[in-house]
Amino acid sequence: MIRKLLLTVIFCYPEIPELIPLNKILPERADYKTLQREKNLRDLNMKAAMADHYPTLAASITYGVQSSSDDFKIEDGTTAATIGFTLTMPIYSGGALSSQDKKSKNTISADCT
Questions:
Q1: Cα separation of 28 and 17, whole Å?
Q2: DSSP character for 70?
Q3: How far is CA 46 from the centre of its chain?
Q4: 46 near 108, Cβ under 8 Å?
Q5: How far apart are CA 26 and CA 34, in angstroms?
Q6: Mind listing the pLDDT tens digit for each residue in 50-87?
């Protein structure tokens, strides 16, 4: 009787839990989330480096009023308004833009290996 009880206790294993698919486990892990965010940031950095090749357009508007009087009465004044646009287009930057592009692409490809 004791021998049978002892054998039952020795060979009694706990029940194996149900396997959870990997696609349900990974999104909940903090390290996986961090890697995903870092990959997204590196992709954005690469897009920002590529955007340096595009022309940029800046606009400015200025409005002012000027008046003067000896009697401390501000009556007729002069108004002035200006609108300005500036178009900047990178023509040659000594290889700085292409080296930024290569650096951002190398950073992404180094993380994938």
A1: 19
A2: S
A3: 10
A4: yes
A5: 11
A6: 888 889 999 999 998 887 777 766 677 788 899 999 99
Beta-strand pair 56-66/78-88: antiparallel
Provide φ and ψ at 35, rounded to 5°. Answer: -65, -40
Cβ atoms of 67 and 77 closer than 8 Å: yes
Residue type present at position 41:
L
| Alpha-carbon distance values, 103 to 7, 41, 51, 89 (Å) | 65, 14, 14, 22
Distance, in Å, from the CA atom of 107 to the CA atom of 45, rounded to the nearest integer, reads 10
Neighbours of 6 (CB within 10 A): 10
pLDDT confidence of residue 1: 58
The number of folded domains in the chain is 1
Range of the domain at 90: 54-67+78-113
CA distance 59 to 87: 9
* Domain-embedded: residue 111: yes
Q: Which of 60, 55, 54 is nearest to 85 (CA)?
A: 60
Asked whether the beta carbons of 64 and 79 are under 8 A apart, the reply is yes
- Tell me the sheet residues that pair with 112: none
